[in-house]
Amino acid sequence: GFVAGQQPSPKDQGVPARLDVESLDIAGHTAVARVRDDYLGMTFLDTLSFVSVDGNWQIYNKLFHVEGPAAS
Fold this sequence. Notes:
By secondary structure, this protein is mainly beta. It has strands at 19-27, 30-39, 42-53, 56-69. The chain has no helices and four strands. A hairpin with a 2-residue loop joins strand 1 (19-27) and strand 2 (30-39). The radius of gyration is 14 Å and the shape is elongated.
């Protein structure tokens, strides 16, 4: 509900998207990615684990760290 209630969306406000892939490690049918992104005025460093099921990569787990306010 909180996320859906953030209107207008950053895209509709003309806020440029930030999504930087910092690292990606793949081992067989598993992978880990670290991604830095800005969301709701904050910068996050996300750690995502993936698993490949029938050839499709799916997020298995997500951890996040708030680094601070997003850069303007």
